[in-house]
Design goal:
Blueprint lengths: L1 E8 L2 H8 L7 E8 L18 E7 L8 H17 L5 E4 L3 E4 L2 E12 L4 E9 L17 H5 L5 H20 L4 H8 L7 E6 L2 E10 L5 E5 L2 E5 L4 E3 L2
Parallel strand pairs: 1-2
Antiparallel strand pairs: 2-3, 3-7, 4-5, 5-6, 6-7, 8-9, 8-12, 9-10, 10-11
Helix pairs in contact: 2-4, 2-5
This protein binds biotin (BTN).
Length: 237
């Protein structure tokens, strides 16, 4: 694993997507500040300069199990494990937000390029570490290690620690381990509870039952069982 540290770039995910041909498998790119940090769907990812973990990992050696949806769950497990060394009450909101109680501390964005001559997946991770105030509209829904624990952390050290856990977990997964399914299920936000979510923009209620081996969320809605792909529902917090 090689770590490339940048000060200011548009986005660590974009950097890898542009440069992956000349980078090695498992290269990590970090930034102190992103000028166009991106979240899932059309969201932006805002982070103060030097306060937080902003990193992306490149995967370009594909094996049989190299799958975006499953890797996204493996990455959630890794971040959960890593943060659990410092803090309790952490949950994984399927597919890959990490919450402290019900406040978001981490977002993960996987992107892939798959064409005839080249394949790559980038796993982008933003974790709030030393930032204590966020944009007005999300402040009450967002937290950080410092907000929870009232002390500062060394971003470089934490990034290295997380990268090692992540690469290790991915290797185990690619070699056939299914441990991530049980792990995620045991920390899953809203499991076995009646939850509200929007499905295709309609407000619905149902119970989260399980995660399928292909990564889909299994939900019971009235008397039907639904197998949901990421992006189809938005769980309300
Ligand atoms: C989300 O919750 O919507 C996903 C947020 C992902 C943010 C990270 S920060 C590092 C990497 N670079 C980006 O532009 N986005 C991801």
């Amino acid at each position: 694993m090689k770590i490339i540290k940048k000060d200011v770039i548009p986005s660590t995910n974009e950097f890898i997507k542009e440069q992956y041909e000349s980078l090695d498998n498992y290269t990590v790119v970090t930034a102190k500040y992103q000028t166009s940090g991106r979240g899932r769907t059309t969201r932006i990812w805002e982070s103060n300069d030097s306060d937080n973990i902003l990193m992306s990992l490149l995967i370009k050696e594909f094996k049989e199990r190299t799958d975006l949806n499953l890797l996204s769950l493996v990455a959630s497990m890794s971040v959960h494990k890593f943060l659990s060394k410092y803090i309790n009450n952490l949950y994984i909101k399927w597919p890959n937000d990490i919450l402290v109680d019900n406040k978001k501390i981490c977002g993960i964005l996987l992107e892939g390029k798959m064409n005839n001559n080249s394949k790559m997946i980038v796993i982008g991770i933003g974790i709030n570490i030393n930032q204590t105030t966020f944009n007005e509209d999300i402040n009450h829904l967002t937290t950080s290690l410092k907000k929870e624990l009232n002390k500062d952390f060394d971003i470089n050290l934490l990034t290295l620690e997380l990268s090692e856990i992540l690469v290790n977990d991915i290797e185990e997964f690619l070699n056939g381990s299914n441990i991530f399914l049980d792990y995620i299920k045991s920390k899953l936000y809203g499991i076995n509870k009646q939850i509200e979510y929007t499905r295709n923009n309609v407000l619905c209620e149902g119970t989260i039952l399980d995660i399928h081996t292909d990564g889909r969320l299994i939900v019971k809605e009235s008397d039907q069982i639904l197998y949901i792909n990421s992006g189809e529902i938005k769980i309300k917090r």
